[in-house]
Amino acid sequence: MKTKKKRGRPRTFEREQTVALAMANYWLEGPQALSVNEFCRRVGLPKPSLYREFGGEDGLLAAALDHYWESVLAPIAERLGPDRSFDESTEALLDFATGERDTPDGCLLAKSRGTRNRLGPTAGARVDEMSRALLDTYEAIVRRGQERGVVRRDVTCEFAGRYLDTQITTALRQAAAGEDPSEVRAQAELAFAALLPS
Amino acid sequence: MKTKKKRGRPRTFEREQTVALAMANYWLEGPQALSVNEFCRRVGLPKPSLYREFGGEDGLLAAALDHYWESVLAPIAERLGPDRSFDESTEALLDFATGERDTPDGCLLAKSRGTRNRLGPTAGARVDEMSRALLDTYEAIVRRGQERGVVRRDVTCEFAGRYLDTQITTALRQAAAGEDPSEVRAQAELAFAALLPS
DNA sequence: CTATTTAAGTACCGTCTGGTACATTAAAAC
DNA sequence: GTTTTAATGTACCAGACGGTACTTAAATAG
């Protein structure tokens, strides 16, 4: 299909770049702390352009979350695949939570989950989907660990998956709050140790 | 000393009652979610009275936090005294975090800590003091547990105290988010198990 | 050329926020 | 009585918020 020329004024709006900027800004400050006004001011974008493209604050955050999933979380989740051991997987998760990075501290999804009930319907639904996908990943990690005998079997993998989720979320929150990464990591490792066979 | 009569119009403002209402409302909704306007509207209090008594939002929250400490946390902390075993202490903490109550879910101090950097100077200082006092309590609980051999000795009691604080804060946050109390309790108990001797 | 279509961007809307000026009221002091 | 003091409460402030009407600009269609 040929891209037939459109009729009106040509678009100068760069959607991808705007979404990336939205992700970076929401990531840095948290969804509740960044206003539409402030974001438009920062990136030099007229508000009507934003509203035409994203429908409003809810749509902008949803687009930012989608981009965050595609560019940050999905690649990490993939690398937690079945060829990795339980220890390697938890190690990788802790690296993400507390490692040195050029990106903001913490996790955009974790910050969004922290204010879940103050999100719009679209962004809220995205958060729920992604949380569900993460939980499934954690559950699979635990299940493989149980099969290989490195995770205790007297808890269900669903429960242990939720426990893993809770502990990682906690570590991400601490990292975002600026706590000492080595302290955060040590506490998380202690929490993970509760999953080992007794 | 005799209470000599004051000169101007007599005061009808009830400070204690207002502080109690402020505590209840901040507890229920979180410090960031309750505006001065909304609070005054709810309790039928003119804003100038509030500003004369508390100086502003910061002072009101600080007063509410003081009241919370005196009426809620200090009585609990006292009951965690040296006559209690480690298990009894953690049990009592979990009861506070997840038990049935007539008060709001979660903990006003925990909610305030979650938004520490958006607090005013006075309320922020109160939060820091109370957090410090809690940490000391947790550390003492761990130390007694170590002395009695029910807590592993290969971690410092400072570190284990911070770990306890992290886990209790997490449980309180989950409870405030409306998660199933038995699930919250089970996860916290698993996390506490990491402190037992191996 | 003119008409039409589409995007860009100024300038505004109503609502809420934390905070306050000021007129009013009720007591004690004289 | 009048004056003085201190509390009350209406009515306001400037600024920020999410969102939008409308003018202007830039392209194609005829």
Structure description:
- The structure is a homodimer of 198-residue chains.
- Chain A is mainly alpha-helical and 198 residues long.
- Chain A is 67% helix and 0% strand.
- The first copy, chain A, has 9 helices and no strands.
- In chain A, helix 1 packs across helix 4, helix 4 (57-78) packs parallel to helix 7 and helix 7 (121-147) crosses helix 8.
- The radius of gyration of chain A is 19 Å and the shape is elongated.
- Chain A starts with 14 loop residues before the first helix and ends in a 5-residue tail after the last helix.
- The structure holds a DNA duplex (30 and 30 nucleotides).
Which regions of chain A are unreliable across 5 or more consecutive residues at pLDDT < 50? Answer: none
Oligomer: homodimer
Q: How many beta-strand segments of chain A?
A: 0
Using CB atoms under 8 Å apart, which protein chain pair has the greatest interface? A-B, 23 and 23 residues
Helix content of chain A: 55-70%
Mean pLDDT of chain A: 95
